[in-house]
Amino acid sequence: MLNKLSCKIFLIILVFIIHSSTAIPAELSKNIIIIARHGSLEDTPENTFAAFEKAINIGVGGLEIDVRKTKDDKLILMHDDTIDRTTDGKGYVNKLFYDEIKQYDAGAWKGEEFVGEKAPLLSDVLQFAKEKNIKIILNVKENGIEQKILSFIREYDMINQIYFGGRLDAIRNTEIGIQGAQLIFFQPGELTNDIIEFVHEKHNHVGTSLFGTDNRDKMEERMIKGVDVILTDYPSVAIDLLHYKTTNEPKNKKIKNELQMEMNGNIEQVNVLIDTMIHGPPDNSRMAALILSALPQELSTHPLIELLTYKKTRKRFNPIKKIISIFKKEEKEILIPAIIVKRNAAWSLGLIKDKRAVIPLIKQLETDDSELKREITLALKRIADKQTVPILNKILLSEEDPYVRYDAARALGEIKDSHSIYTLITALKNDNNWMVKGGCAGTLGKNW
Questions:
Q1: Residues in domain GP-PDE (predicted)?
Q2: CA 356 to mean position of chain CA atoms
């Protein structure tokens, strides 16, 4: 009996010792800020308001976001230099207008519940962070936009909620009036008591990052050391370790910027826009294609289909009254290369989603131009007609350009036809391009 009692006492003491040596002190857990990398949880699309709202709701204290500049100098959130991976569109961020990027879905790749998410503007995210009183780590992805970012930070009175680092650190050191704690990141092996104490003496914050792992032991170890900030891909695990409780409720309305176009449309408008697509300049040509996609299908589909077979000519359309100031023709005649006109037409038809365009689009897949093939493939993805499955299967298995094969895999994921499953599995097994393999895996992982 005595031996059993002794064993119980020993086990109780052992558990107490282990818990005491690893438990996070209450005063530390209150001060540690968990920051969601790319502003997302494990199961939400990065750099979107859907991710931000869920992260805030579980109790994160901050978001790390990626900032890039569009062709028309808008600052948006996007990690990669292209929109290919995280939207249903394609192209380099700095080569696209923001109004164009807003046409693409930035959430569907993570699940049907996120359909309709868009790549947000930095200004809207700063407003959101101000309202929620959270910290922001700005990951500036390119040079030359620092001063514009700083002007937004000041406009939204966010100086004390921004951790300045990287490209923004130089601004912090030169601009008068920027105060507050500086966040200094350390690798795990560098986190000593002396280092942490030294940083705190300078009234700065100690940060550490945990990417690609939800290992609780590693997180807890760093929390116990006394770090101020943990940047992680798995904020829900970190929050759980800190025993956070949150009363934040998700807003019924998300902060979004939707493209608003109130054009009733008439033949005269369509003719002007078609004329602009052909005679440019190039930026206006793309914008004309975008506006055409917002007009009624009966007005825009047929002339856009005709442009799929456009060949450059010196004959201009008859002069038409100019109704949109940005499309004034130059004194000198400008003719956009035929291949660009075709690309813009295919892109616009994809945005319209009129099934009458499917066959004309498929006929143009014989082109040698990879960019036109990509525009057509993505247009077929948006239209999502099952009659395109055979040609998309063929593209996935035989197309030379891996980007076109990748787009075909994404398109098949949108259509969700069982006749493509074998093709996707074959490509997943045999394709030597990891981007294509990833596209196939993502498509096969959807709910069919």
A1: 32-161
A2: 31
Give the pair of three-digit tokens for residue 331.
């004194």
pTM of the model: 0.73
- Cβ within 8 Å of residue 383, ≥6 positions away: 349, 350, 353, 354, 355, 357, 358, 361
Q: CA quadruple 39, 166, 82, 397: dihedral positive or negative? A: negative
How far apart are alpha carbons 68 and 51 in whole angstroms?
18
Q: pLDDT 10s digit of each residue in the chain, 448 long?
A: 445 444 444 444 444 444 444 455 555 555 788 999 887 777 899 999 999 998 998 889 999 999 999 999 999 999 999 999 999 999 999 999 999 999 999 999 888 889 999 999 999 999 999 999 999 998 888 888 988 998 999 899 988 898 876 667 666 666 655 655 678 888 877 888 888 888 888 878 888 888 877 777 888 888 887 888 889 888 888 887 776 444 344 433 343 343 333 344 578 889 999 999 998 788 889 999 999 998 889 999 999 999 999 987 544 444 444 444 444 444 445 567 899 999 999 999 999 999 999 999 999 999 999 999 999 999 999 999 999 999 999 999 999 999 999 999 999 999 999 999 999 999 999 999 999 999 999 899 886 6
In order of their start, the domains of the chain are: 33-245 (3.20.20.190), 266-312+336-445 (1.25.10.10)
> 36: number of CA atoms within 13 Å, CB side?
31
CA distances (Å), 72 to each of 91, 97, 117, 121, 443, in order? 14, 6, 21, 13, 33
The three-point CA angle 428-374-301 to 5° equals 130
Place of tokens 């000519």: 313
Tokens (6 digits) for 264: 């009733």
